[in-house]
Write a structure and sequence with these properties.
6 helices; globular; 149 residues
């Protein structure tokens, strides 16, 4: 397996779920609409939940992160150029459809809202963006460090 694919397959499943947990924490702090206690709207008050969120993030988001990493790894296998930003974002959106899809189907029902569907889209797509940024910076550093042939 080429080094770019190995790096991709390692980074997305390892970094994606904790970044998703951090995204959940930040979104819940910024938009207290989703929290059961609307008075608990500061990040400091929600920080004790971070270890639990990180532990839960691997079984919940690991498969999606592996899917996104596989898509990006296959794309790097077909061409050795940098992958555009839209590609991992689209893969993350596709991998989140099993969560976002039912939320979108409930829009007309009581309890269904655009905000909840948007919450799930943000929680799935932002970690893919974060891992893509790390992946591309590591990849660019490795290419610069390579001696010229």
């Amino acid at each position: 397996m080429p080094p770019n694919n190995t790096l991709t397959w390692l980074l997305y499943p390892l970094l994606g779920p904790p970044l998703g947990a951090l995204t959940v924490l930040i979104v819940l702090a910024v938009f207290p609409l989703f929290v059961a206690d609307p008075d608990a709207n500061s990040v400091i008050e929600l920080l004790p939940a971070l270890p639990v969120l990180v532990l839960v993030s691997y079984p919940v988001g690991g498969i999606q992160a592996l899917f996104v990493g596989t898509c990006v790894g296959v794309a790097y296998g077909f061409n050795n150029r940098p992958i555009p930003l839209w590609f991992p974002m689209l893969a993350a959106l596709v991998s989140s459809l099993y969560v976002v899809g039912p939320a979108l189907l409930r829009l007309g029902e009581p309890g269904g809202s655009v905000a909840m569907a948007g919450f799930w889209v943000v929680v799935h797509v932002l970690p893919a963006l974060g891992v893509w940024l790390v992946h591309d910076s590591v990849r660019a550093h490795r290419l610069r460090a390579r001696p010229a042939a």
